[in-house]
Design a protein that fits this description.
The complex is a heterodimer of chains A (284) and B (263). With 284 residues, chain A is an alpha/beta fold. Chain A is 38% helix and 22% strand. Chain B is mainly alpha-helical and 263 residues long. Classes of the chains: A alpha/beta (284), B mainly alpha (263).
Chain lengths: 284, 263
Amino acid sequence: MTSAPASRNLARARRSTGAPPQLVLDGVAKRFRRPDGTLITALDGVSLGVRDREFVALIGPSGCGKTTILRIANGLLRPDSGSVLLSNAPPEPGPGAGFVFQSFRLIPWATVRRNVEFALQELPLSRKERAERALHYIGLVGLSRFAESYPGQLSGGMSQRVALARALAVEPQILLMDEPFASLDAQTRELMQMELMSVWERQKAMVLFVTHSVDEAITLADKIVLMGSGQVLETIDVELERPRWTSALRSDRRFVELRDHLWHRIRELVLSDPQSDFYGRDLA
Amino acid sequence: MRNGNAAGTAQPSDHIGGWTVALLRLAFLGLLMFLWWIASIYVARNLIPSPLETWEAAKQLFAAGRWQDAVRASMATYGSGYLAAAAVAIPLGLLMGAFNVLGKTLEIYVYALSATPRVAFIPLIIVLLGLGFEAKMFIVFLGAVMPIIINTYAGVRQADADLVEMARSVGAGRFRIFTQIVLPGALPFVIVGLRLGATIGLINTVVAELYTAIGGLGGLLAVYGNTFRMAEYFVIVLTLAGIGVIVTEALRYVELRLGRWRR
């Protein structure tokens, strides 16, 4: 695999031009029109930043605008007001960001290798370089044996590793992950978290990670951003040492307190939200 | 495969070998022949020829060259009308799907036209195109074109929105999304349309041969049916059934080849 280190150098060269990569959202607002014509506010003045090599988890009740932030960070959506800068430029869809979706979104009629190559087609690579780079990243997530398999032949965990390889292969400045492990069973989910950490420690791209799981957020993130009804409510730096899978750490007082705190906040948000199914319920 | 997902899709207990199917089909054919033979004995006034009489009639038709001439004439009508239909319908369906305004504008007319019995147009076609080859070809074309347009259009319309968004997120442009995501996703629909079109096209071939200048297999059908030469009549019916089976099986084979990833 001679080309992979070379291409990684290329990515590093691209990054090292100018300031260290960072994502900055400043006062971002976004409204959508429902089919019935009413306006719904998805984001209401969101400011947040992801620093170089930082892992940020977005957490909050359903429908609080977390996914909208990812779409805006990728350039799939433009904010109505406020500004978004990825390495000092407004983001455009493309190899600058690697998107991992909850539902994998693999092309069913393309092999694993071709799925990864699909994301590489926007890069100035020859056909051979594309194939080599795809195989390198498929190997990185441990699926070399399945490079010529079709997605229908893979389990959920394997499919999401392919999606991860596809996102990593473009060597993005930022990984945008939308509840990537939510549809996996508990064990696969934990293994995938480890997989992601091992990759991230090596690549050290920025990560913006949307999750519903408090434990997942604490286990993975440098910084947790708590959101509710389109606003950032709280930003917490997680200063626990890594790795965080150990039972010692999970029963650590700081871990438990942080988890209790976040749980409490989220429950409060859900119970006080008139839109929520649990509005007004007394579940203490 | 080491995971439950993949094992679940294989389902070895439901699997029937290709040879078993072939054998069962052959046995069923034997049963049909037997019932046919029984019917030929018990139905009065020689309305149903025996399998043997039919075979003799087939040999005579073949020896005289009438069978070959009829098949050739019918296949020329069928093939040209059907190919023209595919050549018009697939691009039109794709365009209608790709450009929403075009699709929304045209779809109601396509549905209206496809709901109108095409036989209703035959007098008009005869007035415009006469009784010759062009008229026949156009009748086949008109029958086959609608299901292909409708299915191609539906195939493009049902493109997986999640996959399209994924493609957008990696920076793919409209053209690449259309050719690499939407088009392959629509392919199974296109083939269903082609199969429906093939069936209707064959029906319209016979209709055309009955309503315009009598000729081809449809013509022989009329001649032998009207003169109660039931053995010859049966040969033609079986020939048409055979053509139908060959065409649809060929398209099913294409579909299977293209859908290998679905295993």
